[in-house]
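General statements about sequence and structure are easier to judge against a single worked case. For one protein, we set the task of working out the structure tokens from the amino acid sequence alone. The sequence in question and its structure tokens are set out directly beneath this paragraph.
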Amino acid sequence: MTVETQKETLGFQTEVKQLLHLMIHSLYSNKEIFLRELISNASDAVDKLRFEALSKPELLEGGAELKIRVSFDKDAKTVTLEDNGIGMSREDAITHLGTIAKSGTADFMKNLSGDQKKDSHLIGQFGVGFYSAFIVADKVEVFSRRAGLAASEGVHWSSQGEGEFEIATIDKADRGTRIVLHLKSGEDEFADGWRLRNIIKKYSDHIALPIELPKEVTAAEGEDTPAVEWETVNRASALWTRPRTEVKDEEYQEFYKHIAHDFENPLAWSHNKVEGKLEYSSLLYVPARAPFDLYQREAPKGLKLYVQRVFVMDQAESFLPLYLRFIKGVVDSNDLSLNVSREILQKDPIIDSMKSALTKRVLDMLEKLAKNEPEQYKGFWKNFGQVMKEGPAEDFANKEKIAGLLRFASTQGEEGEQVVSLAEYLARAKEGQDKIYYLTGETYAQVKNSPHLEVFRKKGIEVLLLTDRIDEWLMSYLSEFDGKSFVDVARGDLDLGNLDSEEDKKVAEEVAKSKEGLVERLKAALGDSVAQVRVSHRLTDSPAILAIGEQDLGLQMRQILEASGQKVPDSKPIFEFNPAHPLIEKLDSEQSEERFGDLSHILFDQAALAAGDSLKDPAAYVRRLNKLLVELSV
């Protein structure tokens, strides 16, 4: 009988309670994944022991042969999983089994809908590990001792998966963890050797250490029960070290679920072995869905690092740039030392070479996905597009390649969907068009209906519509693609180049000259509100718009800086008017300077609203508009 001391009952973290309820009620259709999750955790525990034992070989005392054992008891209706990995202390057990110490937890819980099918997908994005045990068990017991601690510092954790758990200190002779699942009524199928063997072969064949099941043999003479022999049921070799021709798609998919703790298959993967000056293997995956902490740039990320098949680091972030932080995978190097640290990785020239090659490999994988599976790529872009837009600023060497992977909404694209590539845009550009035109704004409706697009609609010229908060910042780093420069249609003095005929240009010059008097009157009326007043070449239907100076910040960047508390440089818009519009013709003929001033300011404020900006003096706008309405009604 195990003697327990320091026994106490503790409550689960609120998020754990919600997650347990969700697990039990949403994943009923795929119950067998509990074993995959527990084996993955055991594998991680063994990897961590291997790494710590490099500098502290005494941690392997009592057994250097590392393995996982799965057993069952039909009569007791239990399934037991045991590993001789790093193990847990009492504090570890409370931390790892009673709370979810993962960034994005609040967002995860907020997104739960109550729809079991949808919520099961969210579970896949979040990763659940240990708690999957409660899908099939109504009581779970954990017996563990951390490597390096005394036998008297073992821990016994138990819970029925409701509001609380019990924890006590026990004697445990061996390091590592033993998990005992007391199966629910109706889940007896898992207390069966054939069933467990099939689940292990299906989900965990790739695990790079032996997973053993008991093999019954005939009882020796004079003994009541047969002796138990153990047999390895998985391949027990590192999947990334095997030739690609020998690995099935299903194996790649299950290995991804193991390293990413995801429930869904990846969109794509790339498996390569590099030989020559540098020697390393890599297996890289593109997830199907974004994790909740994707936009927390400081959140843990990176590839699993192995050196000569020995696990070294769980999230080595030096092998890929930050904009590819969603990529999961493994890199195994023969050229790094086993005592490598994060600090050494950041300074090692070998890493720079590997990072460059792995980055290109990921971008090639995405290009292939976009070309061969456009519908799949749409899903990828929806999940990871905004992160990819960080690329041109971070990765100058691959700027053109990244630009080719970007997707945008456009005046000719599907309603609001970011599906247009730059290559597609240029392929259907007008004859003589040597620019890529775009417009940024807060919403799709705002930019789609912007007066800045009027001349482009008239001439049938496609314009990219950029509405993500990051877009204006992106375009400050993306100056050209395929030799064609980008032009913000709301910035500077619009020049359509060859798309305007010589006749059009001549007429525009004559009109501008004829309106010089009106330009001067508007300058005087609007005063310090504007940097400049001029006749517009952009407008066909609206009376006026506000353009941005060539070197000035756009509205998006100004709002981002203001929201972050940074000082925004002073700048004034350029007021452009449409001389053919009836309101402008009426304004030009207005004799009263007071009334001319009021009308000018109303047009200015309306142009600001159309651009998505807020009015500096809304009360003055309302007062002028009411005054005008009263005059019209008299």
Q: What stands out?
A: The chain is about 35% helix and 20% strand. The CA atoms of residues 323 and 390 lie 6 Å apart. The chain has three domains: 5-233, 240-381, 516-551+560-633. The domain at 240-381 is CATH 3.30.230.80 (Ribosomal Protein S5; domain 2).
